[in-house]
């Protein structure tokens, strides 16, 4: 929850082969926490330590909306690697996106995105599976920035943490100026 005007909430999602704990392991939670952001990392249904089954289709967006409401997050920045976009995008598209999120950080998105909020894309230089497609998926967004993270694969935020943290921190700072 926001406690003052400049304190953003950041919701960290995860990719299919990962969990919320990865954000702790690479220091993202700690970095953003000491920088004054409200940071929440969650295990999506059917992954990590969640005790629920996987969710299909449009229910993913509804789940994320209920989670954000339950956590009392006000227009969070959603950081969404790969598969987690299947939760984030239906949520963002189900209402006024500028109210639903302050920003959306797409990491190697697996599907096209057409959204009207600030959206940086990060992809790994060595992402042979989805890297180029990820970049194409973001070209239609008016307020985007594309970052190709060197020496990194599909999980570029884990492969080159320092580079990714610089992108994320710079983006968050730009939202509070």
What does the secondary structure layout of this molecule look like, with pairings?
Layout (H helix, E strand, L loop, with lengths): L8 E4 L8 H5 L2 H7 L3 E4 L17 H12 L6 E5 L3 H9 L3 H4 L2 E5 L11 E6 L6 H8 L5 E6 L6 H4 L1 H15 L2
Parallel strand pairs: 1-2, 1-3, 3-4, 4-5, 5-6
Family: Belongs to the AB hydrolase superfamily. ABHD14 family.
Protein name: AB hydrolase-1 domain-containing protein
Pfam families: Abhydrolase_1 (PF00561)
Describe, in plain words, how this protein is organized in 3D.
It is found in: Cytoplasm. One of its GO terms (cellular component) is cytoplasm. Keywords: Cytoplasm. Residues 10-91 form the AB hydrolase-1 domain. The structure is a single chain. The chain has one domain (10-175): Alpha/Beta hydrolase fold, catalytic domain (Rossmann fold, 3-Layer(aba) Sandwich), CATH 3.40.50.1820. Helix content is 36%, strand content 17%. It is built from eight helices and six strands, in the order E-H-H-E-H-E-H-H-E-E-H-E-H-H. It has a six-stranded parallel β-sheet, sandwiched between helices. Helix 3 (59-70) packs across helix 4 (85-93). The mean pLDDT is 87.
């Amino acid at each position: 929850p926001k406690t003052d005007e400049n304190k953003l909430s950041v919701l960290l999602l995860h990719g299919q082969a990962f969990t919320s704990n990865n954000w702790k392991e690479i220091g993202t939670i700690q970095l953003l926490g000491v920088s004054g952001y409200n940071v929440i990392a969650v295990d999506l249904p059917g992954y990590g330590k969640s005790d629920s089954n996987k969710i299909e289709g449009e229910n993913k967006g509804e789940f994320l909306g209920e989670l954000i409401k339950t956590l009392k997050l006000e227009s969070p920045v959603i950081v969404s690697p790969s598969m987690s976009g299947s939760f984030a995008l239906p949520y963002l598209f189900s209402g006024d996106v500028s109210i639903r999120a302050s920003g959306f950080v797409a990491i190697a998105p697996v599907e096209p995105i057409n959204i009207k909020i600030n959206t940086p894309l990060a992809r790994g230089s060595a992402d042979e599976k989805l890297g180029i497609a990820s970049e194409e998926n973001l070209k239609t967004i008016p307020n985007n920035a594309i970052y190709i993270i060197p020496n990194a694969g599909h999980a570029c935020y884990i492969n080159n943490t320092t580079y990714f943290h610089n992108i994320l921190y710079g983006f968050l700072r730009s939202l509070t100026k």
